[in-house]
Design goal:
6 helices; mainly alpha
Length: 203
């Protein structure tokens, strides 16, 4: 248990850096596309490759955010029926959902590995003016998927041990669908954090 908790703690810390990296890529691509659009409109000049780079940034940013999303239980869950079920049934469904999600991502990671291997074997390049070596964005994309699995495995094991130990509340806190109350509490906390900054701006 202690090992799994430390593993999850490490994954949580790394996921914070990962999401900042992914978010920065997406933000930078948005800025690049905006500049490209303005240049085309105002001076009829294009930077070239903005759409290609933004596609890479979106794909990489998405996979690098998966682990953080998993740990924060921010993935979309259809809970219309779930919230009315007994706690033990909810815990079982949480673990089944976690296994299904991990299984899908394992398949995706395997295919991503295969795609990267093919690109390296043939020195594949994008059929664009930039002629980007495809192994570059594909490697970063794959790292995000691998990091998700690195985070998913201890989470699944921790939930299984909690279920076997009868700690249904722990399963819920780790893998359960978020409740309206939890979302409201997070929003209130976030608002409280922003208030001092807003007060400084008023002054």
């Amino acid at each position: 248990m202690i090992l799994l908790d430390r593993w999850l703690g490490l994954a949580d810390r790394l996921s914070r850096y990962a999401i900042w990296f992914g978010g920065t890529l997406v933000l930078a691509s948005a800025v690049l596309v905006s500049i490209d659009v303005l240049l085309r409109k105002l001076v009829l000049v294009s930077l070239g490759g903005a759409d290609e780079l933004s596609g890479y940034a979106f794909a990489i940013g998405t996979t690098w955010a998966l682990a953080f999303t998993l740990l924060r239980r921010a993935n979309v869950r259809v809970d219309a029926l779930y919230i009315h079920l007994p706690q033990v049934v909810c815990a079982l469904l949480d673990i089944v959902a976690l296994i299904a999600l991990g299984g899908f991502l394992m398949l995706l990671t395997w295919q991503a590995w295969d795609v990267l291997g093919t690109s390296l074997s043939f020195d594949a390049r994008a059929t664009t003016p930039l002629a980007t070596p495809l192994w570059m964005p594909q490697s970063l994309w794959l790292i995000g998927l691998i990091f998700f699995l690195f985070t998913w495995l201890p989470l699944l094991l921790r939930c299984l041990f909690a279920l076997l130990g009868g700690d249904l509340a722990k399963v819920r806190s780790l893998a359960g669908a978020r409740t309206i109350e939890e979302d409201a509490a997070d929003e209130a906390a976030h608002t409280a954090e922003l208030k001092p900054a807003a007060d400084l701006l008023k002054d």
